[in-house]
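Q: What structure does this chain adopt?
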Amino acid sequence: MSLFSQRLPWHLPPNQLSQLLVEKRKAGRRVLDLTISNPTAALPELYTTTDLLAALTDPAGLRYQPSPRGDLRARQAIAGYYARREIAVDPEHLVLCASTSEAYSWLFQLLCDPGQRVLFPQPSYPLLAFLGGLSSVEVAPYSLDFDGDRWRIDLASLREQLTPETRAVVLVSPNNPTGSLVHAAEWQELRALCREHQLALIVDEVFGDYRLDPDCDATDPALGSALLADSDGPLCFVLSGLSKVLGLPQLKLGWIHVGGGEPLRSQAQDRLEIVADTFLSVGTPVQLAAPQLLGEQPRLRAAIQQRTGDNLRRLRRQLQGTALSVLPAEGGWYATVRLPRLCSEQEWVETLLREDDVLCHPGYFFDFTQEAFVILSLLTAPAELDEGVARLLARVTELEKVR
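A:
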């Protein structure tokens, strides 16, 4: 009998791409990293202001006065951040946590007994399966389908995954990495489905500030935020945090907004506070700093959005008229590039790294069901993105000659 739990597949050897990257860096090769996702590394000049550091030096941070919901001033500052987005949020409906990863874990434990099911979108970031495993929850995918215009939720696929043990549906809007938003018609259908089957909604809006295409389909506009929904809907938890709102992943402060019809909403919040009180994971200094830090949000957001928007436009220009294409994206920090099927995704990304010193994420990393795609970060320095894409195009030309 093993001493260790079976919650996760603990033996996860490095994949070939990771091993190749280690070898490249050991050899001192300059690798063009088109996967960079940390704004403090991609845009370090944004974070040189002493105001950000000063916010963390409040002497009151040396006193420990924990609250299960989190410091009231921090929750009020988060409500103020939403007010600037013209979204009304009651600070009393917020529960603070260390990160959205922790928020998912707490909600899985709140909503599910061991072995019960949560549905999540595919493609998406490969994290929820691990978080579900650690909470002894089954996570099952439903499909996002690309119809040539935009990504849409396959509601038939979602319904097929429903079982009597299903407790919640996860939405990610904008999705990572597709950049797709949940649209109004989809949102209404999902709310109706959740009411019908007594399911909770978990809505991850960490990229909600970063719109890439504000001119959405007027016949089915994108949902601005699940927080704008009326209060008589199904139980709904909206997640976000400083990692993306400020581009500061090292400042561990996230939040959960508890919404939906009463009395279920209050019952859920009371129980969630017991979970939060069990861990008390949020540091006092970052809670005290939240009002000042969120005061910097418009400046940080504008610079990040400028970089991502400019890079998406330059990427589209660079690939125009080539065998490659950029799939439409409505929000987020990433671009999905379709490659010609000259080889598999695995061969594409390994060849690009081995021969061209260019690092890209393959689509299968995010559970794309078709090939061949690579995911590029729009945070990448423009000159590095240009050079990396130029090498990618040259590699395509070279492969076309021999295939």
